[in-house]
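Loading example: each entry is read as two labelled lines plus one structure line.
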Amino acid sequence: MTIQAWTLFSLVLFSIGLYAVLARRNLIGILIGIELMLNAASINFLAFNYFVGTDPAIGQIIVLFVIGLAAAEAAIALSIILAVYRQHTSIDVANIEELKG
Amino acid sequence: MTESFALSLATGLAMMVTIAGAMVAAGARSIVHALFGFAIALAGVAAAFAILNSPFVAAMEVLIYIGGITVAMVFAVMLSSAGKREPTQSASRHIMAFVVAIMFLVGVGSILLTTEYGLKPETTEAAWSVEAIGKYLLNEFNVVFELLSVVLLVAIVGAITIAGRDDDSLDPAQPQEDDA
């Protein structure tokens, strides 16, 4: 496999994630799209890590940081989703347009 | 020769599984089906990581993403929409999203296809080891590593605070409002 195959694969995965973020109305669906995009970025990091190969540990460490930050982000996002559902009894983005403190 | 063929086969299989799972995750009508597709896509990504010579990162992907984030999302679905189907939505939103995604795909793809990287895989076995990752994490990247632990701690405390803020709903005397 060439590096171009890997970058194209990562690009397709990113585009699917972008579509999910734009088309979904469920907040959890949008979160799934964001996670798909993060995974595409991680694949890109590891592909270049594999093909350049000067110090392969560093690319893996960057991907580990990305995974850790994604876990933190998912925890916060899911708790916000639960708080929004408690307020509006809906997690459809069309129903929760108004902002109120 | 046969080994490289097997590697190509495994790579193609991992890519196809990932793309198929991601398509289900993006397009499925029910959010539970989308979560299943998401888990399959993550398994494919983990296989891709293993093929890219990073078995430790692949293991972390399975543990944290499939074992952690997906399960947390399933809990969120059970607590909120309870497997309700998404309402029939306007087709224009889907078409707009599709057009934007395709434009992004074609735009970046045309750049990727015309770029010459001139790279060849050249690897030394020792540098890929978990030992090297551990040494880096506790020497050069020590500050980032500790900062990430603080970020995770703050995120978890914040998640508990946000999700459990409403004290009225925890009162057992008051019947909780149920969704229709």
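Chain B touches chain A through 88 residues (CB under 8 Å).
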